[in-house]
């Protein structure tokens, strides 16, 4: 690991060495990676023949510090596919630099995945949304990136991806179509949404004025994760699918203020995680390795 600001982050060799070490702890060779959002780690319990690797067992891996994020990789079989789940992700507000927040994506790519599924808990900004809705990410707004904290800042190694990557089409059209069809089959039509996720740095939830601003910018939901992971995934050529569980509605008016808490986020997560997990499992079943 280097410390010079132009060379921050793990080198290509560092990433490959971490991936190699982790693969020695499991018999599985995953093709699909899944990052579980706050309170959404239960999908890991559905994995057959699980091999669990705790983050603290992996040299150079950050540790998860947020309630609802356990801090382990779970390898195994889901719907016949070999997967690796991150049960616990890293957030910028925990004090990790952006490149560290997203480094597990490069490790998973080095382990052999070709598709990344990212899930999160998010606040609803679109007034037509309701708490408990599931929102497929059509696109995102990288607010930290737009303000100088892009996850790809630093020297670029072309073996990871290009210096100036396109971010249009980050979320795979085919996966979006498949997920929508599955949601209809499962009877989730009334709670299924599609929209734009905006990432803020956190850990503060939004003021009313900030929620109005984010809504005016075209965002349908707001959260504190996902975007750095999706940007790094697109950069290194992974197919990406993103989905948010709307755990609370952001206040757009001073007359109806809802002061969101993390406990509320986890509670709705617990209540609604089953449907999100079902949708993600069925989608995994349809992904071509
Ligand atoms: O990891 P995610 O994005 O699901 O977590 C959300 C955003 C904050 O970390 C936390 C707020 O309750 O939930
Ligand atoms: N920023 C933000 N993140 C969330 N994660 C879950 N709910 C919210 C929310 O309302 N705002």
From TrEMBL:
One of its GO terms (cellular component) is cytoplasm. Pfam families: PNP_UDP_1 (PF01048). It catalyses: 2'-deoxyinosine + phosphate = 2-deoxy-alpha-D-ribose 1-phosphate + hypoxanthine; inosine + phosphate = alpha-D-ribose 1-phosphate + hypoxanthine; 2'-deoxyguanosine + phosphate = 2-deoxy-alpha-D-ribose 1-phosphate + guanine; guanosine + phosphate = alpha-D-ribose 1-phosphate + guanine. Transmembrane segments: none annotated. Coiled coil: none annotated. It comes from the Eukaryota. One of its GO terms (molecular function) is guanosine phosphorylase activity. It is an enzyme of class 2 (transferase). Pathway: Purine metabolism; purine nucleoside salvage. Its EC number is 2.4.2.1. One of its GO terms (biological process) is purine ribonucleoside salvage. The purine nucleoside phosphorylases catalyze the phosphorolytic breakdown of the N-glycosidic bond in the beta-(deoxy)ribonucleoside molecules, with the formation of the corresponding free purine bases and pentose-1-phosphate. Belongs to the PNP/MTAP phosphorylase family. This is Purine nucleoside phosphorylase. It comes from Lottia gigantea (Giant owl limpet).
